Amino acid sequence: MNESHGAVHGHSHGLDPAIGRANRSRLIVTMAIVVAVLIIESVGAVLSGSLALFADAGHLLSDLAGLVVALTATIVASRPATDVQTFGHRRSEVFGALANALILLVVVGFVAVEAISRLIAPSVATVQAPLMLVVAVIGALANTVGVLVLRGGAKNSINMRAAYLEVLGDLIGSVAVILAAVVILVTGFSHADTIASLAIVGLIVPRALWLLRDVVRVLSQGTPRGTDVDLIREHVLSKAGVVSVHDVHVWSITPGSDVFSAHVVVESTVFSSNRTDELLDSLCACLEDHFDVKHSTFQLEPEEHANHEVEQHR
Q1: Which end of the chain is more exposed for a tag (fewer CB within 10 A), N or C?
Q2: Confidence bin at 151 (pLDDT 50/70/90)
Q3: 205 and 98 in one domain?
Q4: CATH number of the domain enclosing 297
Q5: Is residue 243 located within the same domain as residue 101?
């Protein structure tokens, strides 16, 4: 890009170091909690014969794998931008979220098949509801702690949000197991355990699909959710000296880290009066203040240049 016609306002593309360290600490604490609950629920599922506990334990196993991926992603994402990775490594968070979603769908498929087979051909084994209840309560308490630990990091990272939603889903799953155990204790209806496992599956599927939707949007460089490109164009055109705008592009490195670029045709007097810096500052401030876009690139073009461009895009 010709320096006299454009400017790139530089911003850091790596994850803020303080945020990265905080997120890593959150993930490590949560991983320790998940490992402890996973062991307890796995043993409890075997001893009690509860499919719902097994489903919750399977979900915890996927969470553990997802948290490992998330922790790895936060470490990689904190690395600074280089000449090879000019936007830094924030995109690794998106791949971490993709791995989480796929793990969740595998767990869902296994539990759903097992639950349906139990409904079709009920097992003669009796579910030990008292043990099932005790284990589920322990799981619920531990998951509550995990949710509180991860909640702060979920606001600034898709990767952390994925981990947060997984542990939140585990908490809801533990509550479902508690309810099933209570039903079995009170009524003797043993199918409550299988129904609870299907309920956990129902909780997991929407979250997995939600993550996949966000991942696809980012990797396909779609316009970020909630971004009105026409409104951005209107704001740019409202600046003094701007004649038209084209080649407008808005995409995300990772959700919450949006990037904007455009060619802006301006009056020749903007160049002759040396007002390009003033206009660029105004445009960048507008994008950041009104649309939370911290990295924007504008190519300023005089009218005579724009008139002979071979191709222009909206």
Answers
A1: C
A2: confident
A3: yes
A4: 3.30.70.1350
A5: no
The pLDDT-based confidence of 120 (bands split at 50, 70, 90) is confident
Counting Cβ atoms within 10 Å, is residue 139 exposed (0-12), middle (13-18) or buried (19+)? Answer: buried
Mean pLDDT across the stretch 272-280?
87
Asked, for residue 3, whether it belongs to a domain, the answer is no
Give the model confidence (pLDDT) of 166-213 as tens digits. 788 788 888 989 999 999 999 988 888 888 888 888 877 887 888 788
Domain that holds residue 212: 17-219
The phi, psi pair for 27, rounded to 5°, reads -65, -40
Report the domain count for the chain. Answer: 2
Q: Which residues of 150-188 are buried (b: 16+ CB within 10 A; e: fewer)?
A: beebbebbbbbbbbbbbbbbbbbbbbbbbbbbebbeeee
- 177 and 47 within one domain: yes
pTM over 0.70: no
- For residue 153, which of 250, 214, 77, 252 has the smallest C-alpha distance? 77
